[in-house]
Specification:
Elements lengths: L49 H14 L3 H10 L8 H18 L14 E5 L2 E2 L13 E10 L4 E9 L10 H7 L3 H5 L4 H14 L8 E5 L3 H13 L10 E4 H9 L8 H7 L11 H17 L8 E4 L2 E4 L20
Parallel strand pairs: 1-5, 5-6
Antiparallel strand pairs: 1-3, 2-3, 3-4, 6-7, 7-8
Length: 337
């Protein structure tokens, strides 16, 4: 829900209670405040290998190219030639690095994706034109778009509308923004019922059992604000399998070395040479477009990894030094104690 999301950490307005102790996902307190983090320099591997000098020389040559020269080189190498200069530069550097390491003993064997599948989620929630500070956003659309990281394709999707309970009547602003009508939510299931259907869908895909997977969102709001608030309102525990995720805004900014202002959905698409496909603020269409960005990043050599988690009811950054772990096998929602 782009209009409600910000690049900074959302402040949860819902109250905390002793029953929220299960919200802590990092028992060793390894998660940090939700701030932008740049990956540190590599600390392992023998960088005296001649291949790293070759990579540095290739990077220097790419840095001296203008945009037209970069585009021509991408065409020559049969790479995607779309995108702004920063994107083209990173694409070429990643390509040469992969090629050189592929034939070198210095390769660390980690050039593959960390996950078999990535689930892109972009909730739509109730809203007013001017939300008061204590406004409770209720999820009204629950979409999931499934990316196969081996084929780099969108292979399936899930979508259901959700009946709001606290504010059952949608505002005119919300209807116009999301395209979700009052009739759609009136005929929809409650959040508990929709979450159960989503869990069944994930289980059918054997995610977390046969295949390693994780979630990916456009910012911290989907999990850190919308899902957290909705679980409290629905009197269920925050799902264990959704406690860690990839915030694509952070991943995009760190990988392409761009400012936060360039990490909004439309900016990311345009910088990659793409246009938005579908209706903005439709949760499923937003999720599909976010998935397109993720696929381009994987094609450009980005190793998307979990960078945020829920910790004591708030979204926190996951240090890059943390072990790579997939999401837990999805389980049906549990009631709060």
């Amino acid at each position: 829900m782009e209009s409600l999301k910000e690049t900074s950490q959302p402040a949860n307005k819902t109250s905390k209670s002793g029953g929220d102790q299960e919200e802590q996902c990092c028992p060793n307190a390894s998660c940090e405040k939700n701030e932008e983090q740049d990956p540190p320099s590599p600390k392992q591997g023998d960088f005296s290998d001649p291949v790293y000098k070759e990579i540095a020389m290739a990077n220097g040559a790419i840095n001296r190219m203008n945009r037209d020269e970069m585009r021509a080189k991408c065409v020559e190498l049969k790479l995607d030639a779309r995108g702004v200069k920063d994107v083209l530069r990173k694409r070429l550097k990643s390509y040469y690095k992969r090629q050189k390491l592929m034939h070198s003993t210095a390769a660390d064997g980690n050039s593959h994706a960390y996950f078999d599948y990535i689930c892109v989620v972009d909730f739509e929630a109730t809203c007013e034109e001017n939300n008061p500070p204590d406004y409770l956003h209720e999820i009204i659309e629950f979409p999931i778009v499934l990316i196969d990281t081996r084929t780099l394709e969108i292979v399936d999707s899930f979508q259901e509308y959700v009946k709001p309970v606290v504010n059952p009547e949608l505002s005119e602003f919300c209807v116009k923004l999301t395209g979700i009508t009052q009739k759609m939510v009136d005929e929809a299931k409650t959040f508990n019922q929709v979450l159960k259907r989503a869990v069944s869908w994930l289980q059918e895909k054997e995610l977390g059992t046969k295949y390693k997977y994780t979630f990916l969102t456009d910012g911290s709001w989907d999990m850190g604000k919308f899902l957290h608030t909705q679980c409290k309102l629905s009197q269920i525990r925050f799902p264990q399998f959704a406690r860690k995720w990839i915030n694509i805004r952070k991943s995009y900014g760190n990988f392409y070395k761009v400012a936060r202002t360039q990490t909004k959905l439309i900016c990311m698409l345009e910088n990659l040479g793409m246009q938005y496909d579908g209706r903005p603020h439709c949760g499923l269409d937003d999720s599909r477009n976010i998935a397109r960005i993720a696929i381009h990043m994987l094609q450009d050599g980005c190793q998307l990894r979990v960078n945020e988690c829920m910790h004591s009811g708030e979204p926190r950054s996951v240090p890059i030094s943390a072990p790579i772990e997939g999401a837990l096998a999805p389980q049906m929602p549990k009631k709060r104690d």
